[in-house]
């Protein structure tokens, strides 16, 4: 436990620091210092800072996904080579060769493990800050960058009547369950499940290439569609309202990001990509290719279909 | 006969106990990694830029090299797995003595992480009875 404490201390400091900065800023522009609304906005601010800091990583990943088109011919060959081989070892061999291809072409569609792992200590330290507030307040201590006064403020902060540091299940066990905590927890659990559902449905129905649709990844995604709500439900009743605010906000951010990706930077070969190319065509923009050379080639081909004149049609012509 | 066996078992027992505790840290880490790979990893989908993925790498490193050295290898790999690394193939350093001839004695994760070798072994054993 002490080992965990040592690792999390700097993150706890950073998390409380960012929240205090937001809190100070919001009080400066006139929000009441002791209000739960101010502290809630500070938690949302924390999400914006962390997810905002990860935008360069996200952009890099999207750019790499565009570069994927250059290796489509090689990828098709690879898929043909392993067609029908569904045993685990062959799948692994294919994954290995695929990674080799990415390296060869100098592009990699995956965002790496570090950005994902780095979010975990932030989440855990927020959890620790929020669940430690009541204790620290009782002993008159500060937490990280938060002064004892601010801790006392935070401990008393409520949003729609629910204390930010209160959680559903612990309250239930303590026998002092308040309606506000129950209602707010449930609303946020539902919001998290809904945003997750929408995000994943979007990816699965619009942003996956036909090859990926048949792969084992799809099966996994389908399974997660039903496992994740369970995770949110169990977490939702155990975590304090403040943590749920963080969790819900970051989920909604992910959903928004996904909408943006599907609209503006879809995966090549996916239904969203076809729609995207159609929209570009309608606007008279060049179709997206892997390199400038490919774009030029496609532009030259484009005017060809227009040579055939469309037969004029009566607008109110009966449809068969 | 039975007496001799009992004596031998009594003599062996301390060794079994020692081995159990000696391998305990490694086996706990293996269990944690397997749980992660089964339940948490699918939430995120594939993010890793390497083959084998970081968790597969960690699992093999700890299975093969033990808790201390394996954790060290795994930690170094995770630090390497950032968006500005090109990624690609990055196998776990093999120990000095490798016994990969009989797949039934090789941990499954090692087989998964070295598919070329074990596919070749598989093909060999399948073609043998036919010949």
Folded structure, characterized:
Chain A has helices spanning 2-28, 36-53, 55-67, 72-81, 88-105, 113-138, 148-156, 168-174, 179-206, 210-214, 216-238, 241-264, 271-283, 292-301, and strands at residues 158-159, 162-163. Helices cover 72% and strands 1% of the residues of chain A. Chain A is mainly α and 320 residues long. In chain A, strands 1-2 form a two-stranded antiparallel ribbon. In chain A, α6 (113-138) crosses α7 (148-156). In chain A, β1 and β2 (162-163) form a beta hairpin. Chain A has one domain (3-84, 92-286). Residues 290-306 of chain A have low confidence and may be disordered. Chain B has helices at residues 2-44, 54-65, 67-80, 108-113, 115-130; strands spanning 50-51, 88-89. Chain B is mainly α. Chain B is globular, with a radius of gyration of 19 Å. The model of chain B has no long low-confidence stretch (mean pLDDT 85). The A-B interface holds A 57, 60-61, 88-90, 92-93, 95-96, 98-100, 102-103, 106, 108, 110-117, 217, 220-221, 223-224, 227-228, 231 and B 39, 42-51, 53-54, 78-79, 81-83, 85-89, 111-113, 115-116, 118-119, 122.
Strand content of chain B: under 5%
- What is the typical, i.e. mean, pLDDT of chain A? 78
Helix content of chain A: over 70%
Give the C-alpha Rg of chain B. Answer: 19 Å
How many strand units of chain A? 2
Beta-sheet strand percentage of chain A? under 5%
Query: What kind of assembly state do the chains in view correspond to?
Result: heterodimer
Determine the structural class of chain B based on helices, strands and strand pairing. mainly alpha
| Uncertain ranges of chain B | none
Instruction: Assign the structural class of chain A, choosing from mainly alpha, mainly beta, alpha/beta, alpha+beta, or little secondary structure.
Output: mainly alpha
Largest beta-sheet details of chain B: 2 strands, parallel
Radius of gyration of chain A: 25 Å
Q: Which stretches of chain A of 5+ consecutive residues score pLDDT under 50?
A: 290-306
Order of helices and strands of chain B: HEHHEHH
Could you estimate the helical fraction of the residues of chain B in percent? 55-70%
